[in-house]
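ok so i was messing around last nite and threw this chain in just to see what happens. nothing serious, just curious
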Amino acid sequence: MKKHIVVVLSLSVLTLLSSCNQGKAADEKVEIEKVKTASVDTVKKKAVSTIDTVDYNKRMIALSNDTTGRWPVKTPYPLPGAILPYNRIIAFYGNLYSTRMGVLGEYPRAVMIEKLKGEVAKWNAADPTVKAIPAFHYIAVTAQGAPGKDNMHRMRMPFKQIDTVIKWAKPIDALVFLDIQVGHSTVKKEVSELVEYLKLPNVHLGIDPEFSMKNGEIPGKKIGTFDAADLNDAIDIMAKVVRENNLPPKVFVIHRFTQGMVTNYKNIKTLPEVQVVMHMDGFGSKVLKKSTYLTYIKREPVQFTGFKLFYKNDNWNDWKIYEPEELLKLTPRPSYIQFQ
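result:
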């Protein structure tokens, strides 16, 4: 929707009584032209830094699938180029060093990519109103049972591995998420190490509270936690990268499957530069997964939502993996679907 902005400049009537006053009038004319130029420049800048808010609101209402007023969440409008709610992200999760951490590292590259394309096609068929796009969600920092040289209980993957994933993403125009398991480290330290990658327009961030051990426990022995303050550290870093590099908004995925994994959710920042996805990360039966989604994701709204599907752990005994048509009935409808 175009807005017409009219700049009105009022001038006092000058009585030209002398050459001195004529000089004054000339000076004022110059100043007026400066104001006009500045005003036009301001209008131009505003024009390129806004989105179609009517369209955005309609999409958010449709995505919310809710009549209670809880969804959609009222947040600042995103910068132009935002991925959500215009797209639905279909991501394969994993690590190239492990065939057990997720589908991303389980199959040969060509097989994995074709499998991902198939999932994207299924979602586009199920919901043509929101374009499904592919993504690789790569665990760039993994929690460790052993303390390591710096006693942080985490291992940073070599940059060459991240470069490989980014290279794989390019031919299929896929997004790349770098996922962080901090162990005994901090969000600020680990995200700061990845800033150069976050400067790339298609690189985004994921973070896993499960492996944030606040009291010195060994990762994997207890479910960890992040407070809103921890998450805001990541949001602040990403927002700064977006502003300084004139980028479209970053997507920030936060894994969650218990109440205690995220505390003080109401204090999580929502900014035009960052789109926050609270992602349901549990596995099990359909009943259990839906209950987790409704209890921890729907009831504590932040901005957007995600839903994780496990090819193996959700397909066990009499359990069956969710189909797109089933997930589209959820309130709210997830914007991010991750396969492990």
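not much to say yet. The chain has two domains: 1-48, 51-339.
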